[in-house]
Every structure is written in structure tokens, then in C-alpha cells.
Amino acid sequence: MGTTTHIGLTPIPPGQVTLTDRRTQRSWSVDLAPFHLGTLPVTQDQYAQVTGERPSTAQGDGRLPVETVSWRDAVLFCNSLSQQEELTPAYDFDAQGEPVLRDPSADGYRLPTEAEWEYACRAGTSGPRYGPLDDIAWHRGNSGERPHEPGGRRPNPWGLHDMLGNVWEWCWDLYDPEVYGTYRVLRGGGWFDEHWSCRASVRRRSHPTFRVDDVGFRVARSTTG
What is the maximum span of the chain, computed from C-alpha positions, in angstroms? Predict the structure, then answer.
């Protein structure tokens, strides 16, 4: 494994976002400090450079988004990349071996919170999407039922690509611990999803060990200094 993995990051300004959950009809607002978010989802080549593994179902093009990775896989990737770049890892592990956030201000890589994810996805827009769906996303209607190289669709106003469609993206947060225990949040919709799942507000949940061929992730870093 080399130490030359390059993850392009986009600076995200501070602000506020209101999240909604259709299941519970609940809404809540979150104030956000500035942070950096991956301009693209992590690719198969990037994942292999850091971990030495190629878990994805779609084979043959390392520029495709990595998929068939669990939430725990994504957390371990973040720590490994941080160590390669001599940054402070964002995560520790408790006595049961479960990841815990070491320090929200650590300069290492981490998963975005779902508030950060939705705020960055919307990029100052107020509708369900930041543009016409076929222009911005690979979804069931235009993907040919397969993932595509990130960056091929129009970015949002802050320059982030594939925030909707292509692959679902793991976020750090628990979905609803009182009802679903350790299940974590997924955002964004994927290449196999109908148009109604590819919206900025849509929340999906899954077990942190779940792996499937339309789920990947992108990384974040806290702004320090």
C-alpha cells in the first residue's frame, strides 16, 4: 500500500440546516462549523491504495465509486488514510471494539455527519434537488443499472459531484437508536433507485456491518486552525 492517495476536498462554509424525518414527522435544526468534504465519493482505486482491498461488485475500472463497503469499513478507511498522511485519526475504539469519535476537531479524515451531508448537498438551494435529476445524478432511469465514474454529472453550486445518485453514502450518525439500535444513516440515493429516493432530504438506515453494491461513502475533515 502506497502513501500517495489523493482525496480532493471542497471547503464548506458554516451555516445551518433543517433535517426532517418522514417516518416520525420530526424536524430539527443544526448549526454547522466550516468543514471540508470529499468533492467525489471514494473510488475503488483510492480504497485499494489505503486498504489493499477491492471489495466492490463492479469490477474492471478502479475509477468507479467503491461499494460493497460497510459503515465500519468506511470508518477504518478514514483512520488508515489519516495515519498515512500523519494526521490525527478521528476515531478511537471502545472496550467492545466499536468506533467512537475521538475528537470532533481532530485534523484526520472522518465520515460526515448527516447534517453536514445534507447541508453540503443542498449547497444553498431549497428544493428536493440542486438541479434536474438527469443532469446531476445516476439513478435507475439513466444508469443502465450500474455505477458510473464519479464526476460525470453536473456538480452542485459548491462544486460537489454525485451527492445524489450513483451510490448511497454512509454518514456517522445513528439513525434512531431507541428504535433501530446501532443502525447508521445512509444518504443520497444510488444507481438502482427511483427518482423519489434521490433527494437531499431522504434518509435510509442500515446495520453498520451491512455491505451491498450500491452503498459507498465520501470523507470529511474538520477545519482546524
Answer: 47
Element (H, E) at 141: none
Interatomic CA distance for residues 29 and 20, integer angstroms: 9
Name 198's Cβ contacts closer than 8 Å, sequence gap at least 6.
Answer: 129, 133, 137, 139, 164, 165, 188, 189
Convert the pLDDT of each residue in 140-179 to its tens digit. 999 999 999 999 999 999 999 999 999 999 999 999 999 9
- 8 Å CB contact between 78 and 91: yes
Query: 220-222 and 109-110 as β-strands: parallel, antiparallel, unpaired?
Result: antiparallel
Cell of 116: 453536514
Which class for 127: exposed (0-12), middle (13-18), buried (19 or more C-beta within 10 A)? exposed
Give the three-state DSSP class for 56.
coil
Does an H or E element contain 43, and which? none
Amino acid at 87: L
How far, in Å, are 34, 57, 142, 144, 173 from residue 64 at the CA level?
Answer: 28, 11, 16, 14, 25
Rounded to whole angstroms, the Cα distance separating 127 from 43 reads 28
* 36, three cell numbers: 471540508
> What does the pLDDT look like over 14-23, one tens digit per residue?
999 999 998 8
> How far is residue 179's CA from residue 183's CA, in Å, rounded to a whole number?
9
Q: Tell me how many degrees the CA angle 36-40-43 measures, rounded to the nearest 5.
A: 120
